[in-house]
Amino acid sequence: MVSSSSDHNTQFQSSPPLMANRHFSRTTSKSFSDLFIYVGGSLVALLLVWALWSFSSPAPDPNTFPTTFIKPSETEPVKLQDFNINFKQDSSVPTFYDDPTLTYTVGSPLKNWDEKRSTWLKHHPSFAAGAKERILMITGSQSTPCRNPMGDHLLLRFFKNKVDYCRIHGYDIFYNNVLLQPKMFTFWAKIPAVRAAMVAHPEAEWIWWVDSDAAITDMDFKLPLSRYKDHNLVVHGWSKLIYDKKSWTSLNAGVFLIRNCQWSLDFMEVWASMGPQNPNYEKWGATLRTTFKDKIFPESDDQSGLVYLLLHEKDTWGKKIYVEGEYYFEGYWLEIVEDLENTTRKYNDIEKGVRELRRRHAEKVSEHYSEIWKEHLKDAGNGKEGWRRPFITHFTGCQPCSGDHNMMYSRQTCWGAMEIALNFADNQVLRNFGFVHNSLSDSSRVSPLPFDYPASEIM
Ligand SMILES: *[C@@H]1O[C@H](CO)[C@@H](O)[C@H](O)[C@H]1NC(C)=O
Questions:
Q1: DSSP letter string, 171-182
Q2: CA–CA separation, 93 vs 289, rounded Å?
């Protein structure tokens, strides 16, 4: 349990307050203006022409489409998916980026985003294919070194884990380590980061926030996006605990999937308005504490805020929020880590019986083998009762960076469990590089895998 206001961050991955980084903003605005002069110089004539009619006629003209993308051959129709993404071409037609009033910041609402995004996609057709499934993962940590001497090392390993997952599945990833809204520190910092990422990545349908202290422990598992087709926000939680128990821990706000759309921008404005940058911050703290009997610390926090919106503005927001409780969209490490040895053994036993599953392959075609695995995981079950690999193991309360772990666990318990989970995940990656950790607790030593492992034994 959270024991006092001073350790209220223990339920979250947090970063300490910091001042706005003046150097950073100065250099950024300088390079923006340089860029503007450069682009402006070369395109000014075109922009003027387009500006004259393009604002009054939002329908894209086919002639404005880039001419550099590969043309489908006449004889063999090529599906849109076959186009390669063109990173070198930007449309000269003005887009929302050219609108001086558009911002990347929380607190300045953005309008007609769905239309703006889709217009951008129309002008960047190489990104349009597969756009509905495109995911950008965001994670991050504080801008200064960790107080815990091994904190930065642990954060590096947690980040490596996410990079591994994103590489295998072709997702983009962004690591943020500045406060984009200086007052929105600790657990509030993710909202401004997601807000900015939506504008920076119109090609991505989903933004997936994953706390820095969460590890992906099933490298094969993919988010079941079709399940969320009618929803805009996915969080891990339990409806019963939300609506019946009114508990602030009835869901976890440390991992969420949010659609890049107007609804999400509107929702985040409302959600963020409970934060420390708002004059009503203290009032919100009191309201949330009254609402949730199990909330001990007085400050308004993003997780309680989210549960509050589900409880009190269910009609406005609830319909589009999917509370995922069926699998470990994120799971509590304490109920997961002790089983990971057995999970490894179970998976190895299955592979011993199925040659196809243990066939060596290029890392790039891993998803082919994940598909084959599905058949063998039909009865694996999910969560504590099942034996399927947990998708995300979240070290809630461990605070790798500050070292201010919850007093419920010892420092050793937290770090030891993190190593086991990270090595468990790393084994799935190293497998395709021909190696395996000597044990889940041994982060340093690995052994080469013999051909036909695990049917053959490691020497
Ligand atoms: C792991 O499996 C062994 C053998 O089946 C069993 O005795 C043990 O209780 C299991 N451990 C856990 C943590 O479930």
A1: -EEEEE-S-SST
A2: 50
Q: How many domains does the chain have?
A: 2
Going by CA atoms, what residue is nearest to atom 1 of ligand 1? 342
Examine the domain organization and report whether 429 and 285 are in the same domain: no
Cis preceding-peptide flag for 454 (omega within 30 of 0): yes
378 C-alpha to ligand 1 centroid (Å): 21
Q: Which amino acid is at 279?
A: P
CA gap 152, 113 in Å, rounded: 37
Task: Please identify, by atom number, the ligand 1 atom nearest to the C-alpha of residue 339.
Answer: 13
Whether 214 and 313 map to the same domain: the answer is: yes
Burial class (CB in 10 A: 0-12, 13-18, 19+), 130: middle
Q: How far is the CA of 338 from the centre of ligand 1 (A)?
A: 9
Give me the domain span that covers residue 136. 41-69+85-324
How far, in Å, is the centroid of ligand 1 from the Cα of 343? Answer: 10
- For residues 285 and 160, membership in a common domain is answered with yes
For residue 96, the one-letter residue type is: F
- Residue 371 belongs to a domain: yes
- 189 and 179 in contact (C-beta within 8 Å)? yes
- Please report, in angstroms and rounded to a whole number, the separation of the first and last CA atoms in the chain: 46
Q: Which residues of the chain have a pLDDT value below 70? A: 1-83, 459
Write the pLDDT tens digit of every residue in 246-282: 999 999 999 999 999 999 999 999 999 999 999 999 9
**Rg over CA atoms, the chain:** 24
Contact present, 328 and 391 (Cβ < 8 Å): yes
List, for residues 184-205, the tens digit of each pLDDT value: 999 999 999 999 999 999 999 9
Would you state the structure tokens that stand for residue 271, as one six-digit string? 């959600």
For ligand 1, whether the C-beta of 339 sits within 6 Å is yes
Q: Can you give the pTM of this predicted structure?
A: 0.83
| 426 and 278 together in one domain | no
The string of DSSP codes covering 202-230 is TT-SEEEEE-TTEEE--TT----GGGGTT
Q: Is the dihedral of CA 15, 21, 27, 30 positive or negative?
A: positive
